[in-house]
Specification:
GO terms for molecular function: SNAP receptor activity; SNARE binding. The protein has four helices and two strands. By secondary structure, it is mostly helical. A two-stranded antiparallel sheet has the order 1-2.
């Protein structure tokens, strides 16, 4: 896996740095600063405080003592990781775009359904108002004749009862 490979590359770079420091220590047996740096002791020496450290994928890599090939390898790995991150970002943006298009299509269909429903409600409202006006006319007509109709029905009943 790429994470394991990156971790192993970090370890290899650190080991190469330690090897260089060890060789420097072997050449100059009394150099206390080289011994402290090799052991990782934190001294306030000017050389150690000015060393450049690059934080890369959870590991810090000291870049002061890297030769050109190691620096090139480190930069290549950084660029590869950035390319992978950009690829993942591109895929994520593509998925977001697809989701956005799907939401847009759904919203358009919902708007169409709302327009159809509004049209049907308007038609039903118009029909209801027409029916209300017709009912009001019928009520007006029957109100005046209602009492005459009742009287006529009672007279018919009296005639039928009287003949019987």
């Amino acid at each position: 896996p790429s994470k394991e490979l990156a971790s192993r590359e970090d370890t290899l770079i650190k080991l190469q740095q330690q090897l260089e420091k060890l060789e420097a220590l072997l050449q100059d047996k009394d150099d206390a600063d080289a011994r402290a740096v090799l052991l990782g002791l934190n001294q306030n020496s000017s050389r150690h405080s000015r060393s450049k450290i690059v934080r890369f994928s959870e590991n810090e890599v000291e870049v002061d003592n890297l030769d050109n090939s190691q620096m090139l390898q480190l930069h290549q790995r950084i660029m590869d990781d950035q390319d992978q991150n950009l690829d993942r970002l591109s895929e994520s943006l593509g998925r977001q775009r697809e989701i956005g298009l799907t939401i847009n299509d759904e919203l358009e269909s919902q708007v169409d359904m709302l327009d159809d429903t509004e049209h049907l409600v308007d038609r039903t409202g118009n029909r209801l108002s027409i029916a209300s006006r017709q009912l009001a006319k019928v009520v007006k007509r029957t109100k005046g004749c209602g009492s005459w109709t009742t009287i006529l029905i009672l007279v018919v009943i009296l005639v039928v009862v009287y003949k019987a």
